[in-house]
Amino acid sequence: MNDTADREIVVSHVVDARRDVVFEAFTDVRHLSRWWGPDGFTTTTRSFEFRVGSEWDFMMHGPDGTHYPEWILWREIVPPERIVLLHGEFRDDPNAFDSFFTFEELGDRTRIVMRTVFPTAALRDEAVEKYRAIEGGRQTLRGLADYVTGVSNTDR
Amino acid sequence: MARAATTSDGFNAIAEPQRREILVRLRSGERAVGDLAHELGMTQPQASKHLRVLREVGLVRVRGEGKLRLYDLDASGLLPVKEWLGGFEQFWHESFDRLDEYVQDLSRTRREDGAHE
To answer: What is the DSSP code string of A75-110?
Structure first.
């Protein structure tokens, strides 16, 4: 049995692009800064290097002006299949957690599965609360409809 | 007896796996009851019953077209569920939505640039 079930979160998402392109969007800060975070969020990068053992040190800015420190350590990089990263708020953050990204080819589309394993169930719940706060107050029904129904056909 | 209906809100409505399956099918656009019933291997009355529940809690809309009744997703009913769920998963789904949009540009640039990177 899976003994991490009570302290992990799995998010699966199909992206309409080939796997090598999707993977590439993770490898460079000029790509990452274009999509990291929900709608309306931006990032300011202090340092970035995409290499095992190296870091991405940055600040995430919410649409309401709140700043969130972010810190990523690349633990494992297997192009174009897998990335493991340690995600915290600052270097050596004791509450940092591991996220395992796998990229699966579905023809011309790609399924990303992100499995995050928190050190404890309590830390998982804390992260959910933290991210709920990050998301808070900016949701619109319009955004929800987009989220539920997928990208609108007019975008295609 | 005065007992709250088990289908009185979105949370209860989506607790039923077949109703969740119906919502997933409706993501791609509106559908007729018969189609949904056929695809999900249930009778039309069963499908209608599920759809009625989903409509009552604001998860689907219905419109009549001739004899056909077409059901469509109504995202407003999911708002309380989304707010409750919120947080981390939401963060990533939205990030991945943005990633999806961004890689469309990236794919296009790659095609235009050919071997250049």
So the answer is: EEEETTTEEEEEEESSTT-TT-EEEEEEEEEETTEE
Please name the residue of chain A whose CA is at the shortest distance from the CA of residue B89.
A11
Residue type, A112: I
Q: Taking CB atoms and an 8 Å cutoff, what residues of chain B touch A130?
A: 87
pLDDT in tens, chain A (156 residues): 467 877 888 888 899 999 999 999 999 999 999 999 888 889 999 999 999 999 999 999 988 788 999 999 999 999 999 999 999 999 999 999 999 999 999 999 999 999 999 988 888 888 877 887 776 544 444 444 454 455 433 443
Instruction: Give B97's contacts (C-beta < 8 A, 6+ positions apart).
Output: A13, A39, A146, A147, A151
Is the ipTM higher than 0.90? The answer is no
Predicted TM-score of the model (pTM): 0.62
Say which of B91, B97, B98 has its CB closest to residue A134.
B91
